[in-house]
Fold this sequence. Notes:
The complex is a heterodimer.
Chain A: H1 3-20, H2 26-50, E1 62-70, E2 75-81, H3 86-102, H4 110-129, H5 133-154, H6 159-187, H7 195-201, H8 208-225, H9 235-241, H10 244-269, H11 271-276, H12 278-297, H13 302-327, H14 332-367, H15 378-381, H16 383-397, H17 403-416, H18 420-445, H19 462-480, H20 483-500
Chain B: H1 10-27, H2 35-55, E1 61-62, E2 69-70, H3 72-96, H4 102-121, H5 125-143, H6 149-180, H7 185-191, H8 197-215, H9 223-230, H10 233-239, H11 242-258, H12 266-285, H13 291-311, H14 319-343, H15 356-359, H16 361-375, H17 381-395, H18 399-424, H19 445-463, H20 465-474
Antiparallel strand pairs in B: 1-2
GO biological process, one term (chain A): electron transport coupled proton transport
Protein name (chain A): NADH-quinone oxidoreductase subunit M
Membrane topology (chain A): Multi-pass membrane protein
Amino acid sequence: MTVLSVVVFLPLAAAALLLALPRLPDRAAAWTWVAVAAVDFALVVAMWIGYENGTGVTGGIAYETHLRWIPSVGSGYHVGVDGLSLPLVAMTALLFLAGAIHSLRERRRVRAYVVLFLFLQTVSLGLFTALDLILFFVFFDLSIVGMYFVIAGWGHGDAVRSALQFFLYTFVGSLALLLGFIGLYLAADPRTFDMVELARQTPLDGRALAGALVLLAISVGLAVKTPTVPFHTWLPPAHTDAPAVGSAILAGVLLKMGTYGFVRIAMPILPEAWRSHAMVFVVVGVVSVLYGALVALAQTDFKRMVAYTSVNHMGYIILGLGAAGMAAGADVQAGTLAVTGAVTQMVAHGLLTGSLFLIAGVLYARGGTYDMASYGGLAGTMPKFALLTATAAFGSLGLPGLAGFIAEFQIFTGSLASAPVPTALAFLGILITAALYLRALQRVLLGRRTGPASDRFADLSAPEAFSIAPLVVLAVVIGVLPRFLLDVIEPAARTVVTLVAP
Amino acid sequence: MSGVEPGALLPEIALAVGAVAALLTGSWTPRRRQWVTRWIAVAATAAAVAAAAAAMARPAEVTATGGYALDLGTHLARLVVAAGTLVTALIAADHVAGHRRESEFHVLLLLGALGTVVMAGASDLLVLTAGYLLASIPIYALVGFGKDARGTEAALKYYLMGALSGVLLLSGVTVVFGAGGATDYATLAETLPAAPSSAVAVGTVALLAGLLFKSGAVPAHFWIPDATQGAPSPVAAFITTVPKIGALVAVYRFGGQALAGAAVDWPLFAAVLAAASMTLGNLAAFFQDDVRRLLAYSTISQIGYLLMAVAAARAAESALPSLLFYLAAYTVTNLGAFAVVCALPRARAIADYIGLLRRRPRMALSLIVCLLGLVGTPPTAVFIGKLTVFTAALDAGLGWLVVVAAVNTVASLFYYLRWILPVFRAAPAREGADGAAEPSGDVARWSAGIAVTAAAASLGLGVASSPVLGLLQSGALLP
């Protein structure tokens, strides 16, 4: 039992404990989550410090555990981290810690709420560390189940309907994913679900049609979860009606499961298919970038706006990965840059959008609505809130000095050579998001107070400040001193690109 | 049966002896002490489980007369059937205790289980027929056990459909016998390829009609919703679970052994039936408000997934282990869901489950686990079943069927969620004195315990599926 398995299953153990103690007061349950999330995060930090740069998918996997689980179908309990997953594991642990602190103000059915989030934490960490397709799928599916209950149980508005829509959409995707995984399993010789072994075999190389079909199934599954256009329609309602912490986890962590799957599974295991169809991903990426930005521009609802910018931001990632596939043979350097940027973007988006959704929760707690027209002049009464909101928004639109810039700059630089026109088009996305964030800031923070009486608009409470601020601060740190992150990602990104290269 | 030591048939003997003992004891015991027969049934099924488990280590063999195969399929079927019957007897403890005909209930249950096991093991058309009749007639009576209007109607429907399918089965047996000149599968496998293919096809279809009726597959599924809704809940749990085990193993065995070389396009036939069953069952379940009707349609759709393994039988080695594992997983999960229904006898409609999580958290969690299990959510046992069945079907080149099954799985999610959601939702303000819809009015103790156990077992079998799958991997069916 390595430290990694402890990190993954500690939250679940805490959840089981909470279920077993029926007379626990709500406060104790909430603080249990904070404590567990803090311990988990500390362990991840320790893992990061002890991590020696691995070389990515084919080797250099740290903290590896490989146990027999269902040998008769070639599936095992295989977990480990490398430069692709460790940053996401750390981001996940931090975001759940922030969510735990933020949830200290939750008053409704706290114990069940905490148990669900602890469950989700195990599931998310498990997914990013899984090195077996079935293990990956188990966590992938369970994340849907957990989030469904979060939205249905603690959401607002038409939460039940949004939750159902979310479940149905992403479950369709997960089954497509499963079919793709079975396809990989049947193609491999000897048959196995082990990702490392499959990446070594690349079983579908040289079988164009089968490779394309399996890639299609896997991509549909991951694209629904990501989500990219045209599979994004479940996202706005799910985000709008979910509770604040639920939205933050959904956007920060669960969306990454899709993009992470592309880097971890689709590219290394199906390199030839990825290369031949890289253009499709580039196009889908660019369309997502522009469509997400334009629709976000049209929103008057703060949370919906942030939700649509997620479609935009995920588009950059897909663009970068697609461009890496096109670049691979010619220019490993550019491809590496694009993939590094894509993984950095996953981390940056998790931190920034996570904090923006928590901010939306603060807004809702004060005014009972997300409608930006109902607010105004909050900078005067809520300076801390205004500072964090502005920083997060600027980070999200890609201002230099913040994490989003580091990511997007690398994606664009890495993609420009191999896909010049799409990359140029995607640049417009930055312009539009800049416009929409500035307009949102102006509507909410500046101008004259409108709407409900101002005495309810107290500045951030301690749980709110201590949950949002660390995310924003870390985004600034990554923006100013990105090396500690990039040093981890780059070797793994280079391995992926070398694998995709012919 | 020389050549096979009597010990090899211990599970069947245990069930038969249990039935006779329960009948005799019940006849001479006053009503308030009829519970003795329940413990006879429990003891007989437990003994059958133990004997079946012990027998799994033995090498596969066929009885000397060739009528009964003692192989992996039979071993697993009698293990699961006996366990399912044991669970049913325990669930029923809350419902039939002190009933005027309590002993009859247990006798019929044991006989039905015995017939099901015989169906699974039959490698001869006449043994199969005997098993079919033994598995049918006691269950007709069980469905009408409540003697109320709904139960009587359900029993009558079930009986009429069953009689029709029985006649079809018999005529199918006759035609196949006429074409192949034998009734045992080993000989049929050699003679049927030379027989006129139209006769084989007609005989097979008629024969299958009977077996499909037992399993509740389309097009012989009409009785399921009414029988499930009209029968007492424990009986509903039994008829939607246990007879399927025997019927599906019998279908698999007949298709794989007797029809091995025949010119009938058996895999395609099974695949079409599979697709029809899952689709029709799912569509019909969509807007059911009565939970037992919903479960009834859900079981029709589950047969579809199980038939996928039958369709893949010829082309994929993994078809048999996947079928047997899915059967075991389905039995645990479906009985768990029914146990929850039995534990809350007053909650009949989905609306009665609103707020169950607050009031009965353990029942609610068990229900959620079992329903998500029926969907095939990992890491429950049915997920592993679906994974292996899908893999087998894809391996057999039935890609279209796997896609249909995946789409169906998503569709099924819709109605299972329709039931899960109210459980999770906060209960609205109590509606005045209308306590009838109060699900927590009384909880049947035995059923509640079974529900929790089954949910845990469904999860456990999924997470620790390895030993079971490994065991199933090794064997094949004998003719």
